[in-house]
Write a structure and sequence with these properties.
Distance between the termini of chain B: 62 Å
Oligomer: heterodimer
Strand content of chain A: 25-35%
Order of helices and strands of chain B: HHHHEEEEEEEEEEEEEEEHEEEEHHHEEH
Order of helices and strands of chain A: EHEEEEEEHEEHHHHEHHEE
CATH architecture of the largest domain in chain A: Beta Barrel
Distance between the termini of chain A: 66 Å
Helix content of chain B: 10-25%
Number of strands of chain B: 21
CATH topology of the largest domain in chain B: OB fold (Dihydrolipoamide Acetyltransferase, E2P)
Strand content of chain B: 35-45%
Largest sheet of chain B: 7 strands, mixed
CATH class of the largest domain in chain B: Mainly Beta
CATH architecture of the largest domain in chain B: Beta Barrel
Number of strands of chain A: 12
CATH superfamily of the largest domain in chain A: Nucleic acid-binding proteins
Largest interface: A-B, 55 and 49 residues
Number of helices of chain A: 8
Number of domains of chain A: 2
Shape of chain B: elongated
Structural class of chain A: alpha+beta
Chain lengths: 259, 413
């Protein structure tokens, strides 16, 4: 029996950068895209914002943007729901898409398409959690792949102990065999970029809100932003804005923008 | 610096060792005159440079020719050495046991209360050796009264007192102690000339990872402290080498819970605690009958083990969950289902009785479908598939999602 493939938590650059095909199972029935980080992707989970929908002839294509890139998702043969549900999603909505990759090799040219299985509206907190989980998953893989490369470990069983996963080990081994090495620095920069964008995004949001009011209490800030920013993070952002001189604490727990 | 007659003695010995090679003798004399290095070091360098025989220079036999009763000089490299403290007559003493080795043979030795710190790889000269016998073979017993001299210090590094991390490990370190997380990868029998079982594994700490080769010493998974190990290099790759004198202390064995669903699925049974997303709810036949005595699902209205008990109808649905490593179906029973939607048992019993379970299923779908959940489940390999049963399940609240987001961001920064 073919096992249901898990949806790999990915960021758009890793998904878009898939450049190899790996097959497995009886009659090589399961096809995976192999990412530059050595991740075998059959199904994937991408968190971002719904940017647009285009109903072409017999085919609906939606665009989803995470912090870094836009991904085209074809809504067709693998889609779980009725298209009416898709109508409920509007531009700018936070969404999570679970999809499947269709990949083929035509005379050395890799052609790939991403098909949506599910696209569903989520809260801002869910989208942010899902996206940062993908970045975190990538970050952990970067650490472990760096270890594998520096220690010279190349055997599958040893790789799988380090990666704590047979599936991840298979991908890393394939990548190392095919390409000789893995450019972890490229992906380190991607993680840094996600973190930087997330930092500035939330900081700007808090600053804008403080600017909008003559003065605003911490409780009110928290109340208005609780769906988007956690209490601990909000506290840190406010502390940073204070130390940067952007805002001042006019009385205990109440802040004002310094023009 | 004034050298008494022994320079002439060295020159004589060098003449003999290097078959009167004039160029070598001139080089020795010139370098000695510079007085920048010790004459013995110069002599040793020159013997090496001109391919002379150390045994001839020091008047020491090859170790393969040494028998019990031999008395005189011996030279060789310390091939292995292990020191232990012991107490005798209320006094603390030290004993180092090892092998002396040259190109042709080796000789076991014990040094009591050594005055020097000897290391594996040290090239030593013993001027007044008296070879005894142990188990019918030549054996050398030495003490601090013997004239032992380190001719050349080992390039190997004794790191017995250092607190090392994996990133610090270098080839030829020995006597090292290191802590880390050990994972076992396998074993091979009858390896090497001693037909030992070689156990292999991977040791990781927060600075790196290194392969482990253990010769005859079984490996245990978990957080461990390994002592008396050495570092070997093979084809550009470093290994932690564990031998008979090494010790592996397990600080904490592998956790009770597997880290993810994929890990669980490669074992026959176990538990996983993790976070996943619910991608589907199968609710076609949400009512099953269970035995009120043993709690097992009954078929045809009777429990095989407790035929007299009256079965009870309860709710059970299958959820497809995905933690990024596996996407299995998991059974969730009434107790967990009701806790998710905040319903009481009596209400569920009434709904089952009336055949109105769809309301419960709808409430469940609204609550958990396409939501992130924290779960704890038990799984085991059945005769035809892997069976998983939810033990605990809760939907992640907005507050919890924000908290975890901040935590991950903090680590990523």
């Amino acid at each position: 029996m073919i096992e249901r493939e898990p949806a790999q938590r990915v960021l758009s650059p890793e998904l878009l950068g898939i450049d190899e095909i790996v097959t497995s199972g009886e009659d090589k029935a399961v096809k995976y895209g192999l990412s530059e980080m050595g991740l075998l992707i059959n199904r994937f989970m991408l968190a971002g914002q719904f940017t647009s929908r285009n109903d072409e002839e017999k085919q609906t294509v939606v665009k989803v943007r995470d912090s870094l890139n836009e991904v085209f998702l074809y809504v067709g043969q693998f889609y779980d729901y009725s298209l009416e549900l898709l109508d409920e999603i509007e531009e700018g909505n936070d969404i999570i898409a679970i999809g499947k990759i269709s990949i083929s090799n035509n005379q050395g040219y890799i052609s790939k398409r991403f098909y949506a299985e599910k696209i569903f509206k989520v809260t801002s907190a869910e989208r942010k959690y899902a996206e940062i989980s993908s970045a975190y998953f990538l970050h952990k893989r970067i650490i472990n792949v760096s270890r594998i490369i520096s220690s010279g470990i190349r055997e599958r069983d040893e790789i799988s102990k380090i990666m704590e996963s047979e599936r991840l080990a298979r991908g890393i081994e394939e990548r190392l065999q095919r390409k000789g090495s893995i450019d972890v620095e490229k992906f380190r920069a991607i993680v840094e970029s996600v973190v930087a964008k997330s930092n500035t995004g939330n900081r700007d949001l808090v600053l804008q809100l403080i600017k909008d009011f003559r003065e605003i209490s911490y409780e009110e800030l928290n109340e208005r932003l609780s769906e988007k920013i956690g209490a601990e993070e909000l506290e840190k952002i406010v502390e940073n804005l204070l130390s940067e001189g952007e805002i001042t604490e006019i009385k205990s727990g109440t802040f004002k923008y310094i023009p | 610096m004034v050298y008494d007659g022994f320079i002439e003695e060295y020159i004589e010995k060098l003449k003999k060792t290097l078959s009167g090679n004039q160029e070598a003798l001139t080089e020795f004399s010139n370098r000695v005159k510079n007085q920048k290095e010790s004459p013995i070091s110069i002599a040793l360098e020159i013997i090496k440079k001109y391919s002379g025989d150390m045994h001839t220079f020091f008047g020491a036999p090859n170790l393969s020719d040494v028998n019990a009763g031999y008395s005189g000089s011996l030279i060789g490299k310390i091939n292995s050495i292990r020191c232990t403290d012991f107490e005798k007559d209320g006094k603390k003493r030290k004993r180092c046991m090892g092998y002396l080795e040259d190109e042709k043979g080796k000789l076991p030795f014990t040094i009591f209360d050594p005055s020097n710190q000897y290391s594996k790889g040290d090239y030593i000269l013993i001027k007044d050796a008296k070879v005894g016998e142990f188990n019918g073979k030549p054996y050398l017993t030495l003490s601090n009264r013997n004239q032992l001299m380190i001719i050349e210090k080992s390039k190997n590094t004794d790191v017995s007192n250092a607190k090392l991390k994996i990133k610090d490990l270098k080839p030829d370190m020995y006597s090292l102690s290191i802590k880390g997380n050990l994972r076992v990868t396998g074993s091979r029998e009858n390896v090497g000339k001693d037909s030992t079982t070689m156990f292999s594994g991977v040791l990781s700490d927060d600075t790196g990872t290194i392969g482990v080769r253990s010769w005859g010493v079984p490996l245990n998974e978990g957080e461990v402290e390994i002592s008396n190990a050495s570092v070997k290099q093979f084809k550009e790759r470093l290994y932690l080498n564990i031998g008979k004198g090494s010790e592996i202390k397990v600080i904490s064995s592998r956790e009770e819970f597997f880290k993810n669903l994929e890990q669980l699925s490669s074992y026959d049974r176990g538990r996983v605690r993790g976070t996943a997303i619910v991608t589907k709810i199968y609710s076609r036949n949400p009512v099953v009958e269970v035995c009120t005595v043993c709690g097992k699902i009954v078929k045809n209205g009777r429990c095989e083990s407790h035929p007299d008990s009256i079965p009870k109808k309860i709710l059970r649905v299958s959820l497809v969950i995905d933690d990024g490593t596996l996407c299995p179906s998991v059974f969730v029973y009434q107790k967990n289902l009701l806790s998710l939607i905040g319903m009481k048992d009596e209400e569920a019993d009434r709904a089952i009785e009336k055949g109105e379970t769809q309301t419960i299923i709808n409430a469940l779908e609204n609550k958990i479908n396409l939501k992130f959940i924290d779960f704890s489940l038990y799984g085991f390999r059945g005769s035809d598939s892997y069976y998983m049963e939810m033990e605990e399940i809760s939907v992640l609240s907005e507050e919890e999602l924000n908290r975890r987001y901040s935590e991950m961001m903090e680590e990523l920064r």
